[in-house]
Amino acid sequence: MSIRRLPEDVINRIAAGEVVERPASALKELVENAIDAQSTRILIRLLKGGLDGIEVIDNGIGIPADEMRLALERHATSKLPDNDAIEAVTTLGFRGEALPSIASVARLTLESRTADSDSGWKIIVDNGHFEKEGIAPLPKGTRIKVDSLFARIPARRKFMRSAKSEYMACHDVVRRLAMTRPDIAFSLEHDGRRIFSLNGGESRQRRVAALIDRTLKDNSVAVEYQRDQMQLEGVASLPTFHRGLADHQYLFVNGRPVKDRLLIGSVRAAYHDLLAKDRHPVLALFLTLPNSDVDINVHPAKGEVRFRDSQAVRSLIVGALRESLDLSGFRSAQPADV
Ligand code: ADP
Ligand code: MG
Q: What phi and psi, each to the nearest 5 degrees, are found at residue 121?
């Protein structure tokens, strides 16, 4: 057989394997797009953990009708600066892969309206195939519906877990993103039930407590620390408030949720002599550092990052947590093992 290029829909479906592993990963992309669109209000509706439906409605800048088809094409983005410098990207996305990937493994309905157009426009794509488009009544913003995810890919669908565990993964995604932006109002509904509805413009402390545990507010310290060009802020539980699992540790680098071993290890080091071995603190920490000191694109979907100076990051986190806890009166018996 001779060499030939893969057809576009096959390429998209292969890429979808990376971008859309499960409902929660599709949801993450859609909510990030809503944030990138400067929305002040984002509503998320899920059916059966996202397996039967994901809907994200925002009041952001919208997509011009004549660009909507392009938005669904691979590697098409409005987020790359004019000089093409990816280091200068300040949005959560810029690869132009999410919408075409999702549209290649589901039925996607995209409706959008910009501030200066008289009506909205709607496009439906079913498993990579354009179905129809036309005028749609819509306030300013974007509304995306994803139905029948993986319905045409039985091998994929089979690997989905229960609606309950897919829902928990979706909830986790929304929770993390909502923590990064207390200025934006977020609502989450599941199977017609309201899970939460948060006003925009809250303080970070309040937002974090509302999303993790309201009692955290009285059982935590505020972390605010600056060293060289790095800054750490957030909320960390007192050693008297702990969990049996480390599943309430929310870590962010330059505004993005991450799951990084170095950061998790630093948190453990900071609390190591304050908590029993099988107990874990509850916290949300936001690390900010120059983009040149961190590579956030190692594996964006998995939240892996690489730091230029990981020792400095570790020392900052341990130092900031120890100092914040010390100030609260929890003086440790021995210096932290940095
Ligand atoms: P990326 O976010 O990497 O640019 P996507 O495939 O997620 O790629 O989206 C493609 C383009 O569609 C975006 O660059 C943006 O212009 C537009 N878009 C997607 N979602 C929205 C939204 N909610 N509001 C406004 N524009 C959007
Ligand atoms: Mg995107």
A: -130, 145
User: Which residues span the domain enclosing 274?
Assistant: 213-327
The domain spanning residue 88 has which CATH number?
3.30.565.10
pLDDT classification of 246: cutoffs 50, 70, 90: confident
User: Does the beta carbon of 96 sit less than 6 angstroms from any atom of ligand 1?
Assistant: yes
Please say which residue of 132, 165, 198 terminates a domain: 198
Name the closest ligand to CA 79.
1
pLDDT tens by residue, 282-310: 999 999 999 889 988 777 666 789 999 99
User: Would you say the CB of residue 61 lies under 6 angstroms from ligand 1?
Assistant: yes
Given 198, 229, 244, which residue is the final one in a domain?
198
CA of 162 to the centre of ligand 1 (A): 29
